[in-house]
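Section 3.1: Structural characterization of target chains.
Under the original work plan, the team committed to producing a structural model for every single-chain target entering the pipeline before any wet-lab resources were allocated. The record below documents one such target. The sequence was received from the expression subgroup and is listed exactly as submitted; it comprises 185 residues.
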Amino acid sequence: MNNEKLDKYFYLGSPILFFSSIIIPVFVFFSVIFGLCAIISAPNIETLVILLGCILTSFIWIVFLKQKTNILYSWGKFTSNGVYIKQGLKSKFINFHNFKYVGIAYYKHSLLNSNFGTIQYFIVFSLSRVDISYQSNINLWNPPPHSFKIKFNKKLYNYLLKILPQKQKKQLEYDYISKILRFKN
């Protein structure tokens, strides 16, 4: 395998989070613009209430973004001995030996928990043990700072098998066999 193909940053989240990380700032911006346009076009008490509502809505979105920055705006670059995590302007390097859990988790993307649907797999990197209940419902897991999940990618999986320490490599291989191959057969 050619290592240059993995010399890029991966989004550390699910595709829906990526969409959310883009659309939420748009909502913040447009709600303030809407409130300002309302107050300029018809300066009365009703439009002032609309402006205050828009500012309050924007404030709530900003607080939400501040709390979820580590989930919404994280990118990771995998190296031979760890991962560089970029969150906005901050970046941090975490050695693979520091992760207590490197494995595969999943959730079933279906309507009202029916038997139909697709299974979404993620590679999970956690500085603490991931509760067993989250390993089959990883969409409910709220990762602590510097822990993350990344959408399963076969190329990344093979690369990680080459560079991970033995303990994490065994856990990743075991999870691949017990979770992904089990559902394919």
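DSSP finds five helices and seven strands in the chain.
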